[in-house]
Amino acid sequence: MTVTTDCPKRCPATDISVLIVGAGVAGLMAALECWRNGHEVRIIERSPEQVTTGDSFTIGPSAIRALNHWPKMVEENEKIAHNPTISFHSVNGTRATAPKHIDYTQGQDSKNVPERVHRHWRPQYHDMLSKQLSTVGINVEYGHKAVEYFEDGPTGRGGIVLENGDRIDADVIVAADGIGSRSTRATMGREIQARPSGEAMYRTAFPVEIAMADPVVRERFPVVEGNEGPIELWIGEQVRFYIGRTADTISWILSHKDHADATESWSQNSDLEEVLKLTATIPDWPEVADRLIRLTPKDRLLHFRVMWRDPQPSWVSPAGRIVQIGDAAHTYVPESGNGATQAFEDAVSLATCLRMAGKTNEVPWALKIHNRLRFVRVSCLQKLGLINQKGYSRAPSKSDQTPKALRYLMAEWIWRHNPETYAEENYNKVLHHLQQGGPFQDTNIPRGHVYRDWTIDEILGQHERGEEVELDGDWM
Ligand SMILES: Cc1cc2nc3c(=O)[nH]c(=O)nc-3n(C[C@H](O)[C@H](O)[C@H](O)COP(=O)(O)OP(=O)(O)OC[C@H]3O[C@@H](n4cnc5c(N)ncnc54)[C@H](O)[C@@H]3O)c2cc1C
Known about the structure:
By secondary structure, the protein is α/β, with parallel strands linked by helices. It folds into 2 domains: about 15-80 and about 110-195 and about 310-425, FAD/NAD(P)-binding domain; about 195-310, D-Amino Acid Oxidase, Chain A, domain 2 (2-Layer Sandwich), CATH 3.30.9. About 35% of the residues lie in helices and about 20% in strands. It has 15 helices and 16 strands. It has helices spanning about 25-35, 60-65, 70-80, 120-135, 185, 210, 215-220, 270-280, 285-295, 340-355, 365-390, 405-410, 410-415, 420-435, 455-465; strands spanning about 15-20, 40-45, 55-60, 85-90, 100, 120, 145-150, 155-160, 165-170, 170-175, 195-205, 230-235, 240-245, 250-255, 300-310, 320-325. A 7-stranded mixed β-sheet has the order 5-4-12-13-14-11-15. The chain has a 4-stranded parallel β-sheet with strand order 2-1-10-16. Strands 7-8-9 form a 3-stranded antiparallel β-sheet, with no helix packed on it. A hairpin with a 3-residue loop joins strand 13 and strand 14. Helix 1 (about 25-35) runs parallel beside helix 4 (about 120-135) and helix 10 packs across helix 14 (about 420-435). The longest helix is centred in the C-terminal third of the chain and has 29 residues, at about 365-390. The model has no long low-confidence stretch (mean pLDDT about 95). The site of flavin-adenine dinucleotide has 32 residues, from helix 1, strand 3 and helix 10.
């Protein structure tokens, strides 16, 4: 295998074989970090080739920091990331607040507050990870769909069955197959219940020159340069309209009350006429927005249904050979701003725990420790997403231009976390905690917060009764 000089130094081999199912952000980063940590890696993906659809997401500092081991990606990341400003508007497009960069919060004892937000077009970010993976000699095996996960306690192996009936096994099976993962039967013994949240989104991203060809659209959404990335958020009673653009790409997202046509899928195309039928019902909706919508390439429009799932504490199968990461373990509503970041953190934490375990017979403990290190943090962020879903129903006032929902996401406890050092420092403490019941205090969550299990029904009930959801501890 040829490894180029741009790659990090690899840790000593552990002889732990890892099979990753799904080449999304979680799977690709898990493959890279497992390789760097000395494990043997194989990664499969159901799509026949690399997927180039999707619009944008934010990659938080905890994930950006993880790139530091990978010099080529540090460089590439700075090239492809944009630094967003956000302005709020009424639903007719009239600006309520001036465009503003969003700042990370300086906490009580924090140094090195990140200087900027990194927002990414998913296809570019995905491509960066895929290319880096090729440089370490690992290629995604496309066209391989897992239909079943299994494990064999006595042999200490886990495995999957592919659609064509072939079986592949390894010391660890990483289910990074996204929403609706096939692995929950193996981890939990049942499917996870997902419920419509009542919200759906028409969403797209396409080359900016297509939009700029229309002079009216170009005048309203002028060309931007460098790494600028203005985002406008138009807020109305029935809908929210998000327009984000950079020097090469433009995206719009129309969030609206759910209806049956929407699906929780990142690959099912939708019809522009349906969007225009909806916008025709919105009082004061401006013509320029419809012009932008009409320019959308037909194969680029998704109608994504936002679903809710209660937090699932267990991501590991009973014999400890299968582990879920990313959306397969925990889904987020878009307002949590954390889907990709937490997927990244999972990947780093898992690869580190397997290195700490060091050998194949310790794998089940490594997976359980990883799960324990991550679950409470992830669950807190899922809760924040639900709270924030309510937070964008009105444009902020002139006196307080950053809505509370946005400030929550910039908190120190979120950006300061380093999943690699956290796993290194806490691995043995959690092992002791799990084996002998010793104490363990999470320190990757809001300071002072005492975690207790919660459900979506509980939070919705509080929303309905007009009560504030109680957030004990320092969440901001
Ligand atoms: C095509 C696509 C576009 C997206 N666009 C956006 C976006 O614009 N904005 C946003 O916020 N989020 C988007 N997401 C979701 C976002 O990437 C995730 O929420 C987040 O990054 C967590 O990543 P993940 O790797 O856990 O899941 P995902 O990114 O969903 O990746 C899961 C991968 O597993 C593969 N897979 C699924 N089932 C199987 C199987 N049975 N066997 C083998 N492989 C399987 C999928 O094809 C996919 O490549 C998109 C996801 C996809 C797949």
